[in-house]
Amino acid sequence: MSDWSLYIIRTAHNQLYTGITTDVARRLNQHQSGKGAKALRGKGELRLAFSQPLGDRSLALRLEYRIKQLTRAQKERLITDEAAFAALLASVKDG
Q1: How far apart are CA 77 and CA 43, in angstroms?
Q2: CATH of domain 4-94
Q3: Whole-angstrom Cα distance, residue 41 to residue 43?
Q4: Residues 6+ apart with CB under 8 A from 70
Q5: What are the phi and psi torsion angles at 55 (to 5°)?
Q6: pLDDT, tens only, 30-84
Q7: Domains of the chain: which residue ranges?
Q8: Which of 51, 60, 48 is nearest to 3 (CA)?
Q9: SS3 category, 10
């Protein structure tokens, strides 16, 4: 079983993209080379803003979905505030 991670990428124009993968470095390289998500193609330099190993694919998918529903300000808070991320993770685990 692979360990799944959630990641957030910041584009050159300061947009945020959230995804999940079993290999964050590989996935970032795919996005950089234009072989990842269409949403990131042509967006300039991409930087990893956040990543968190989660283990379980199901949990990673549920958390990715929840984060994609958040506002930009809420996503920025998750990136900088460990407690905010922990609280969101706990709420997703609790169902």
Answers
A1: 23
A2: 3.40.1440
A3: 6
A4: 78
A5: 85, -70
A6: 999 888 888 888 888 899 999 999 999 999 999 999 999 999 999 999 999 999 9
A7: 4-94
A8: 60
A9: strand
Residue 1 has pLDDT above 60, yes or no: no
Strand partners, 20: 6
Are the CB atoms for 67 and 5 separated by under 8 Å? Answer: no
Tokens encoding 22: 């079993």
For residue range 2-32, list pLDDT tens digits in order.
Answer: 799 999 999 999 999 999 999 999 999 999 9
Closest CA to 10 of 51, 52, 38, 63: 51
* Residue corresponding to tokens 């990842």: 36
